[in-house]
Amino acid sequence: MTVLSSALDPAGPEYRAHREAMLARLADLDAEHAKALAGGGEKYAARHRGRGKLLARERVELLLDPDAPFLELSPLAGWGSEYTVGASLVTGIGVVAGVECLITANDPTVRGGATNPWGLKKALRAHDIAFANRLPCVSLVESGGADLPSQKEIFIPGGAVFRDLTRLSAAGIPTVAVVFGNSTAGGAYVPGMSDHVIMVKERAKVFLGGPPLVRMATGEESDDESLGGAAMHARVSGLADHFAVDELDALRQARRIVARLNHRKAYPDPGPAEEPRHDPEELLGIVPEDLRTPFDPREVIARIVDASDFDEFKPLYGSSLTTGWASLHGYPVGILANARGVLFSEESQKAAQFIQLANQRDIPLLFLHNTTGYMVGREYERGGIVKHGAMMINAVSNSRVPHLSVLLGASYGAGHYGMCGRAYDPRFLFAWPSAKSAVMGPRQLAGVLSLVARQSAAAKGRPYDEDADAALRAMVERQIESESLPMFLSGRLHDDGVIDPRDTRTVLGLCLSAVHTAPYEGVRGGFGVFRM
Ligand code: COA
C-alpha cells in the first residue's frame, strides 16, 4: 500500500481560518437547504396534513428501506429565482426493497406541486441519471401540472418528461408511478407512460381534463371521482394496476412492485472497505478562503479514498495536475486533481494519457477541480497549449468510463471543460461550498471588459471616463462573483448539489454504487484525432 502522508496542521492558524470560513459557508448552505425542506411553508403543510396526506419527503422516507440513505439531488434548484428553493420537486437516489432507485416526488405544498421551469430541469436531470445508471424510476405523483404563468418556458420542453418515461421503459429500466392526488392534463401521462401504476382511493385524480374543462368542451356534467378516480381506473379504464386504500398502502405496494422487478446490478457489491487513515473532519480546513492560494489536493484524496492509499501516476511530470489510482468504498477509481491551479501543456498531455489508461482498464474517473484554466502567454501558445488543451478535452469527451466531478475550489475557463465540467456529462457533479466557476475570475473578467472599452474609445477618438470605468469594473466584479458561487450555479442545475466536504466520501460512494448498476466499458482507441 502507498498510504498518503499529511502535512496539514489542525492546530495551526491557517487550518483554523480555513475551517472557520468553511463552517460559515456551510451555515449559509444549511439555511438554503432548510427552505427546500420547508417547501410551501407551514400554512400549506398544515393544510396538506389536515387533508390526511403525507408530505413529499415523508412519502420518500416511507418508500425507502428503513435507515437506507437518500442521496438527494439538486435540492437548491430554483435558488435565486422567483420560485421556491427546491422547485416543488424532490429527486434523489435511495434503496427500495434492496434495489437502488431514482425517486421523484412532487411537493404539493408549493403551488399545488405545479411544475415550474427549474422543477422541469430537475425532473429531466433525474431521468438522465436513471438512464445512464439504469436505475428504476419511482414517481410519487401529486401535481397541478404545468405552472401556468410560466407555461411558455415549460410547455414545449416539458414533453420530454413523458418521452423519457417510455424510453426508459423501452430500455428495460422499470418505471413505477404512485398517484397520491392530482395528476391531470399532461400529468396524466406520468401514470400513462409508466410500467406500473398505483392509485390511492378517493385521492388520485387522473384525467386529461377536469370536470370544468369537460363541461366547457362537451357540455358533459361529471365529477372528479367518476372522471378519474382510483376506483374507476382500477375497475373500468385499466390505467391503474393497483388500487391502494390509503397512502401507506400505496407505498407498501410500491415496495412490493420494486421487490418483484428482478432488477439486477451489473456488478456485485465490493463489500466493506477500509476507512481513510486521515480524519475526514479535517476536509473543512484544507481549502483557503482566497482561492488564489494553492492547496495540495493529496490532502483531500487522503481523506476520501480507502485506507488513504493512492498510487500516483507521473508524479514528477506536469506536477500541477495530480493523477493516480485508488479505490473508494471498494470501487477502483482513477483520480485527476488540480494541484496548483493552472494547466500547462505537460498537465494536459498527462491527463490525456491517464484518461486513455483508465479506458483501457475500465476504471471510473474522479475529477477534483481547482483550476484557473489553461496557461496563456506567448511562450505557452508557441508551446502548443491550444492543441494540448484540446487533447485533454478530446480525451474527456470521448472517454466512456463513468466520470464523477467534484468542484473543490476554482473551476474556471476551459479548465472546467477539461476537468469534465457539466457539459461533458459526468455521471454526477457536486460542488463544495468553497467552489467558484465562471468563464474566468471576476477581476480578470472586469479587467478585460475595461480594456476592450478603453480600446474602443481610443479607436473612435473619444476620451475615456476613468471614474465610470472604475464603477463599471466594481459592478461587473460583484456580478461575476455572485454568478460564480455554488448556490447560484446549483440553483440553475449546473451541478447535482452542494455538499459538506465531510460527506464527500459517502456521496461519491453512493454515486459509485449507482454507477455500477449499469455495465460500462472504456473506449479502446475511439478518440477523435489527437493533434500532436
Ligand atoms: N400553476 C400555478 N399555480 C398553481 C397551479 C398551477 N398549475 N395549481 C395550483 N396553483 C397555485 C394556486 O393558485 C394556489 O396559490 P395561492 O395559494 O397563492 O392562491 C396554490 O397553488 C395552491 O392551490 P390550491 O388550489 O389552493 O390547492 P389545492 O391543493 O386545493 O388544489 C390543485 C391543487 C392542483 C388540484 C388545483 O390547484 C388545481 O386544479 N390547479 C390547476 C390544475 C391544472 O389545471 N393544471 C394545468 C395542467 S397542464
UniProtKB/TrEMBL annotation:
Residues 22-273 form the CoA carboxyltransferase N-terminal domain. GO terms for molecular function: ligase activity. Residues 272-522 form the CoA carboxyltransferase C-terminal domain. It holds the Pfam family Carboxyl_trans. InterPro entries: AcCoA_carboxyl_beta, ClpP/crotonase-like_dom_sf, COA_CT_C, COA_CT_N, MCCB/AccD1-like. It comes from the Bacteria. This is Acyl-CoA carboxylase subunit beta. It comes from Streptomyces tagetis.
